[in-house]
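During the reporting period the student researcher (J.K.) took over the structure-prediction task from the postdoctoral fellow and processed the backlog of single-chain submissions. One of the processed entries is reproduced below for the supervisory committee.
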Amino acid sequence: MEIFGVPSGALFGQLLIGLINGSFYALLSLGLAVIFGLLNIINFTHGAQYMLGAFVAYLGMQKLGMNYWVALVVTPLVVGATGMIIERTMLKQLYKLDHLYGLLLTFGLALIIQGLFRHEFGSSGMPYPVPEVFRGAIDTGFMFLPKYRAWVIVASLVVCLATWYVIERTKLGAYLRAATENPSLVQSFGINVPRMITLTYGFGVGLAALAGVMAAPIYQVNPTMGADLIIVVFAVVVIGGMGSIMGAIVTGFGLGLVEGLTKVFYPEASATVIFVIMTIVLLLKPAGLFGTQK
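J.K. obtained the following structure tokens:
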């Protein structure tokens, strides 16, 4: 069976790949949106922290016998804690300066982290096994859907929507947004704003680490996995609107599908289609699709 002159198997296969990529785009861009939207930090270390998540899970499995489910909980906490240390010792010094200083600092940290891991582990990928419960595939009638990839899509969507709900619809989220606009007023209500900022940064970093754990069985674990992805994720954030939580989610999944379809109908453009869309969006709506002009 063909759809628009393309075998249906190839089309649905690329759509699945697009959804998988979109799941990671959404999770990573969500973390970036949380950090920028609430703390005004352009966190270029995000790709390295995504890679750290994969490595902590891998090393936990190799050295401590940690299974996938334990890694899924422990890794975001560990990597998020390292993020909080970075925020307390380095980033807090830059809050009153231009965004460029934070970008340069986090970019330098990303290069240092990536360089250390490349020196220690080399550049080749290391396998991380798929959890036994997710081995095999589901016959949907028109294609075989690998169970693990289905899990990644569902889990990413649940995490993304839960994060949006907490930030946009709960009292905690209201405090976070208020602390960004008027920290002294929020402090007067007895809320420890510096601690809230640190925890928020750690949460954003934890989302990157969670994406790293889920990506490890699909893409393998290597020191450059974050560097290969972070530029695309920044483009996703810009298209959705810097700091827009819903923009990060919708744009992440949507652009993953667009990229997958482009691989079917015009493969030569698949590596650049997201950046072409970013250019068009910036020309027509500089604040992004879901952003607001300040």
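The committee noted the following: The CA atoms of residues 38 and 177 lie 6 Å apart.
J.K. will present the remaining backlog at the next meeting.
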